[in-house]
């Protein structure tokens, strides 16, 4: 069973590597999007937005956006603590 990769258009080459990749359609001047394609893009972005919010929150703690300069043994512990803080804020 393969998992689906929900990506944005920044990962165009991923479809060659991962067969089950879902990516929004791009429009051009000559080929505008149909209503069905726009609807599909909106659905896909609605599924991705939750993950994007979590990634943005983790980046605010600077644990993945900057170089981690502490002991590697404690990286997982600190990352799990940040995830716990985020989950606590959700409630």
Question: How would you characterize this protein structure?
Answer:
This protein is mainly alpha-helical and 91 residues long. The chain is 51% helix and 4% strand. It is built from 3 helices and 2 strands, in the order βαβαα. Strands 1-2 form a two-stranded parallel ribbon. β1, α1 and β2 (21-22) form a beta-alpha-beta unit. The radius of gyration is 18 Å and the shape is elongated. The model has no long low-confidence stretch (mean pLDDT 84).
What would the keywords be for this entry?
91 residues, two-stranded parallel ribbon, mainly alpha, 2 strands
Which residue ranges are poorly predicted, with pLDDT under 50 across at least 5 consecutive positions?
none
How many strands in all? 2
Assembly classification: single chain
The whole-number mean of residue pLDDT values reads 84
User: Helical element count?
Assistant: 3
Question: Main sheet?
Answer: 2 strands, parallel
Task: State the helical fraction.
Answer: 40-55%
Q: Which structural class should the secondary elements be placed in?
A: mainly alpha
What amount of the residues lies in strands? under 5%
